[in-house]
Specification:
CATH architecture of the largest domain: 6 Propeller
InterPro entries: Kelch-typ_b-propeller
Strand order of the largest sheet: 13-19-18-15-14
Keywords: Kelch repeat, Repeat
Shape: globular
Low-confidence stretches: 1-6, 307-312, 316-323
Number of helices: 0
Strand content: 35-45%
Largest sheet: 5 strands, mixed
Number of strands: 34
Number of domains: 2
Region (Disordered): 302-323
CATH class of the largest domain: Mainly Beta
Pfam families: Kelch_KLHDC2_KLHL20_DRC7 (PF24681)
Oligomer: single chain
Helix content: under 10%
Mean pLDDT: 83
Radius of gyration: 19 Å
CATH superfamily of the largest domain: Kelch-type beta propeller
Distance between the termini: 16 Å
Biased composition (Low complexity): 303-323
Length: 323
């Protein structure tokens, strides 16, 4: 969760947290999306805001951004409120491509079981500060939340998993395991029939695209395993076979020092060197869930997970969350 009490950045070279104090910080939130532009601006959209007084969480309505490079733009958050905008949402996804922030899906309410899930696509023009709803052709995915989306260099956005609208007499969510691609240049959806070591039903997992065009999935809720996934998978999007591959080296349960992949709601980025950095998340312990503040990296070029030792934890408040 984006916490107003803590604003920290992680120095990848020194493997240390550094506390920063920009002005006009937005309210704490969860389930939001974030993208970084080539110029070094980080844009955050949507998410849920905890209301301790009413007990009913609210949805964020604004776009906020901050410069990540040192200087005047990094000293204060800025807020943007376009007149025309998408429905407020959380647990959606966002990618950056060609000057736009592209969002897909999500939920319109913060508290289950009244969620209404979405499968719309909107693009925010970062220079003009305007939203546009994108009409897409092809095989459109079902409305969903908790999915992942990453962008390839060719402008194709890859969407995996999530959970869909509640249906049936048992009222359970419909968990998803399909891979969809949206060509942002052609505005056309397609469903990818995959083979190999299939990830199965996943949601609230982490995902990145490496420089070689491989789509990576890490952790998440594995509905078919009735728990959290401790696995990592990749699919080479440049090949025609559309085959998933498991990486057993990333799931060394015999090693007590192995990084904890078995958690949900982690966030991941990838360096140009091929290091996949994974931070935070939630893990089940006993009958309760607990926030996990660890940070580790996985070498996508030579599969070997490595935990990163930090000098300062970014956590604040209680580690316990509701089941």
């Amino acid at each position: 969760m984006l916490d107003t009490a803590y604003r920290q950045c992680f120095d990848i070279e020194k493997e240390q947290w550094k506390q920063v104090a920009p002005k006009n910080s937005p309210k704490g939130r969860y389930g939001h999306s974030a993208i970084v532009t080539p110029s070094g601006q980080m844009w955050i959209y949507g998410g849920g805001i905890i209301n301790l007084e009413t007990g009913v969480d609210e949805l964020a309505t604004e776009l906020v951004y901050i410069g990540l490079k040192e200087g005047a733009t990094s000293e204060s958050w800025s807020q943007v409120q376009p007149e025309k905008k998408p429905k407020n949402r959380l647990f959606h996804t966002a990618v950056y491509y060609e000057g736009f922030m592209w969002i897909f899906g999500g939920a319109t309410k913060a508290n289950a079981p009244d969620n209404t899930f979405l499968n719309d696509v909107h693009a925010f023009d970062i220079e003009a500060h305007t939203w546009s709803e994108i009409s897409c052709e092809g095989q459109k995915p079902a409305p969903r939340q908790g999915h992942s989306a990453v962008i390839g260099a060719d402008g194709r956005m890859w969407v995996y998993g999530g959970n869909a609208l509640r249906s049936g007499p048992d009222g359970l969510d419909a968990f998803l395991k399909e891979l969809h691609v949206l060509d942002l240049n052609k505005k056309s959806w397609s469903k990818v029939e995959t083979a190999g070591f299939l990830p199965g039903f996943l949601f609230h997992h982490a995902s990145v695209m490496d420089a070689a065009g491989r789509l990576w999935l890490v952790g998440g809720v594995a509905a078919h395993q009735q728990g959290y996934s401790g696995n990592a998978y990749f699919l080479d999007t440049t090949l025609a076979d559309d085959s998933w591959h498991g990486v057993p080296e990333f799931n060394d349960t015999a090693n007590p020092d192995a990084p904890p992949l078995d958690k949900m709601a982690s966030r991941a980025i990838i360096e140009s060197s091929g290091k996949i950095w994974v931070f935070g998340g939630i893990r089940w312990r006993g009958h309760a869930s607990k926030k996990d503040w660890s940070i580790y990296w996985l070498d996508s070029n030579a599969p070997k997970p490595t935990s990163s030792t930090t000098s300062m934890s970014p956590s604040s408040g209680s580690d316990q969350t509701s089941p």
